[in-house]
């Protein structure tokens, strides 16, 4: 399973029995590493159904599924390859009853959420309801419920929004419905508060791989920790230089915490770039060089010097 991999990629693929952080610069072959690691886990004796590869978009999940199929054939259909939210849906369909949810619960779209928030807050315009929606979503991504949000509210406006959040949550429960953020928050509640459910899912998933780890938010990291338990059999693949989702709660704190929460964490740096020339990488390294570094790395290429980088005003 190491054919065609460079030494760093092989190191990441062959480390199976503990927490692993793969720092994958742009164009460094991270998806190749993930799919080869899935294959290596199966080769080591782990049943495909006990391996989960979590991505951030359905498109990325579909691409990974196709690549895995090309590498491991029919076994690929048994590997859990999905988004965080899709895994959350599966968990709640199976075990949400302990939280009062029926298996056929509804998942609300943005328009539905706006309508319910308008009802919870009184008759207001849609723009105000969307502002409430954005604030409530931010709190949920931080792992806060309505009472906790009200306790940390910065001003009267946020305190009112937290009170509306409480009424909104009451309506969701009555309607047997959840919103998009609940697909992360409610599975976390399941795992934290119900030992039998937590044990079930820790047994079901023997190794969890997370793509684009730098884009996880606080709640997603807590879900990962609850899923892997003390064994810590996971592989996080990410790059602190590519974090772009701070607006939806993503935080580099999740990268900072890994070596603290998992002292035996193995860190592998994928620094060889297969996409760009040396001139492009040198320019990129110069641009991001002043940024604070959690894990310093320098990308390099064997594709030659290439054309000089030009700056064009548009």
Low-confidence stretches: none
Residues in β-strands, percent: 5-15%
Name the CATH homologous superfamily of the largest domain: P-loop containing nucleotide triphosphate hydrolases
Using the alpha-carbon principal axes, give the shape.
globular
**Number of structural domains:** 2
CATH topology label of the largest domain: Rossmann fold
**Strand order across the biggest sheet?**
3-2-6-7-1-8
Cα end-to-end separation: 46 Å
| Tally of contiguous helical segments | 13
The first-level CATH class of the largest domain is given as Alpha Beta
Q: How large is the radius of gyration?
A: 21 Å
The appropriate CATH architecture of the largest domain is 3-Layer(aba) Sandwich
Order of helices and strands: HEHEHEHEHHHHEHHEHEHEEHE
3D architecture notes:
The structure is a single chain. The chain is an alpha/beta fold. It folds into two domains: 7-90 and 185-301, Rossmann fold; 106-175, Arc Repressor Mutant, subunit A (Orthogonal Bundle), CATH 1.10.10. Helices cover 49% and strands 11% of the residues. The chain has helices spanning 7-14, 30-43, 58-72, 84-95, 110-121, 126-141, 146-151, 156-174, 182-193, 195-204, 218-228, 253-261, 278-288; strands spanning 20-24, 51-55, 80-83, 106-107, 177-178, 207-210, 234-238, 266-270, 272-273, 300-301. The strands form three sheets. The chain has a six-stranded parallel beta sheet with strand order 3-2-6-7-1-8, with helices on both faces. A two-stranded parallel ribbon has the order 4-5. A two-stranded parallel ribbon has the order 9-10. Helix 4 (84-95) packs across helix 9 and helix 9 (182-193) packs across helix 10 (195-204). The N and C termini lie far apart (46 Å).
């Amino acid at each position: 399973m190491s054919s065609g991999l460079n030494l760093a990629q092989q190191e990441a693929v062959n480390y199976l029995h503990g927490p692993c952080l793969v720092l994958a610069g742009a164009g460094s072959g991270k998806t190749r590493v993930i799919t080869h690691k899935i294959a290596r886990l199966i080769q080591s004796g782990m049943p495909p159904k006990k391996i989960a590869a979590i991505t951030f978009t359905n498109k990325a999940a579909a691409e990974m599924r196709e690549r895995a199929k090309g590498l491991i054939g029919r076994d690929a259909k048994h590997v859990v390859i999905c988004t965080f939210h899709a895994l959350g849906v599966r968990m709640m369909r199976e075990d949400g009853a302990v939280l009062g949810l029926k298996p056929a619960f509804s998942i609300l779209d943005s328009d539905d959420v706006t309508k319910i928030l308008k009802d919870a807050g009184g008759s207001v315009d849609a723009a105000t309801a969307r502002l409430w929606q954005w604030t409530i979503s931010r709190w949920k991504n931080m792992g806060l419920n309505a009472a906790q949000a009200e306790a940390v509210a910065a001003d009267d406006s946020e305190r009112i929004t937290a009170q509306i959040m409480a009424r909104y949550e009451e309506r969701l429960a009555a309607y047997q419905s959840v919103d998009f953020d609940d697909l992360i928050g409610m599975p976390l509640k399941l795992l934290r508060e119900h030992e039998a459910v937590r044990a079930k899912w820790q047994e079901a998933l023997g190794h969890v791989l997370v793509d684009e780890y730098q884009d996880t938010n606080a709640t997603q990291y807590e879900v990962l920790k609850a899923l892997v338990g003390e064994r810590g059999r996971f592989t996080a693949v990410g790059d602190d230089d590519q974090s772009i989702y701070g607006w939806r709660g993503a935080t580099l704190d999740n990268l900072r915490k890994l070596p603290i929460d998992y002292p035996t964490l193995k860190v592998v740096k994928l620094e060889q770039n297969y996409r760009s020339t040396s001139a492009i990488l040198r320019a990129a390294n110069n641009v991001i060089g002043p940024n604070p570094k959690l894990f310093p790395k320098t990308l390099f290429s064997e594709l030659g010097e290439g054309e000089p980088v030009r700056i064009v005003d548009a």
